[in-house]
Structure formats: structure tokens, C-alpha cells
Amino acid sequence: MSFDRTIKIAPSILSADFANFGAEIQAIEAQGADWVHVDVMDGHFVPNLTFGPPAVKAFRPHVKTVMDVHLMIAPVDPYIDAYAEAGADILTAHLEAGPHIHRTLQAIRGAGCKAGLALNPGTGIEDVEYLIDMVDLICVMTVNPGFGGQKFIHSQIDKVKRLRAMIGDRPVHIEIDGGITPETAPLMAAAGADVLVAGSAVFKGGSVSDPAPYGANIRAIRAAAEGVLGTMA
Ligand code: DX5
Ligand code: ZN
């Protein structure tokens, strides 16, 4: 996994057909997805339940790009090894998930994964300063985590701009998660984000037997994001 700041679209399989994950992952990759975003929820840190390590392990052989695993769980540390062994390329933990995020990020890299740090919409970036050299990705939540299909929170645009300035030349991705559409993607690309997670906006209108809409949706988000960068250059 080499580092670059080009726009990457990471469909969230939270919006996929839950009876058909292997085929859905293959379909989104064939239709142009750059990464595959896997939302792990525990019914405690967030009010929803999704994938344990065996499920993530079952997804792994289908993912040919990057498996980006977003842990919305607390505590995190007891499960890091299991999700790393399940084949995560990136493991992202929430700053809000416990008192020892520094230790959590160390453990993620220690388990051989790229380390991601996620921030809820209500969390400021002050606490990122002493963590920034320990992470490969910062995920700015633009909805409150727990569900797909929620409305984008515009106050996060300023947060991303300030985070981008803090990162400077470091090889750290800024990922945006929640409410990304062709309308909101350019706002975040302009602010400095490079990884755009999208669930409902990628999967809408398509299916495994009719995957072409996935491709059209991915291209529309990418074109909107790249378009604004073109006008800034
Ligand atoms: C929310 C998840 C997101 C979600 C995005 O808790 O972390 O990844 O699936 O879904 P959309 O794009 O529908 O907002
Ligand atoms: Zn997510």
C-alpha cells in the first residue's frame, strides 16, 4: 500500500446486500472502488451491531484492493489481534473509544496493520497533535457513527481544513465518513480529504445482478471531487 493523496473512493459494505457480501465486494471493485470500507459496530459504542472477526475474515479473499476496517467498538484493544488476523489492511479506532488511544494505535501497528484514528463530529482536533506521528489515516466522521444513510454535517469542513494544515507533509490520509454524495464530496476534497467513504450513495440503484449503477455512482462522486481540485490548481 503506497501513499498518495489522489482521491480514493471507499464504498461501505454496510449498504450492501447482507446475504451476498462476496459478490458485492467483487462488484464494487469491478466497478471502480479504490478501497473497501468495513464498518464494525458493537451495539455499545454505537447503537448498531455488525461484523465480528470471522465475518471480516470471510470478506478478505474477495478484497483485491485495500480492506479498510472501521472499528466502532469499545473497548478496542482486546479485539485488535483478531481483526488484524482476519486480514485488515487498515484498522481504525475511535479517539472516543477509551482512555488509552495512544496504546491502541501502538497495538494496531504492532499487529502489522496501518493505523487509523477516527473522530466523532463532536470531537475537536486538539488531541490529535500528540498522536499524529502514530497514524496512517485520520477519519473525520461527518455523521454520528452507527448507521448509513444519514445527513452530512457541514461543520466538519472547517475541521478537515485545520487537520490538513496540521498534517503538513506527513504521509497521513484524511478520510471522510458519512453522507458523502456528489454534492458533498467536493466540499471535502477542497478542504483536503483524499479518501471518501460512501455507502448509500454508491449502492443506490444497483445490485449484484445489475452492478452498473455502482460504477456510475462511484464515477459521479470521483468526478465531483476531482473537479473541484482541478479548479483549485
Ligand atoms: C457510519 C459508518 C459509515 C456509513 C456511511 O457509522 O461509519 O461508513 O456506512 O454510510 P453513508 O455513506 O450512507 O452515510
Ligand atoms: Zn465507517
Overview of this protein structure:
The longest helix is centred in the last third of the chain and has 21 residues, at 212-232. The protein has a single domain (8-232), classed as Aldolase class I (TIM Barrel), CATH 3.20.20.70. Strand 3 (67-72), helix 3 and strand 4 form a beta-alpha-beta unit. It has an eight-stranded parallel sheet. By secondary structure, it is of the alpha/beta class. The two termini are 26 Å apart. The chain contains eight helices and eight strands, in the order E-H-E-H-E-H-E-H-E-E-H-E-H-E-H-H. The chain has helices at residues 21-30, 53-59, 80-85, 101-110, 156-167, 185-191, 200-203, 212-232, and strands at 8-11, 36-41, 67-72, 90-94, 114-119, 137-141, 173-177, 195-198. The protein binds D-xylitol-5-phosphate (DX5) and zinc ion.
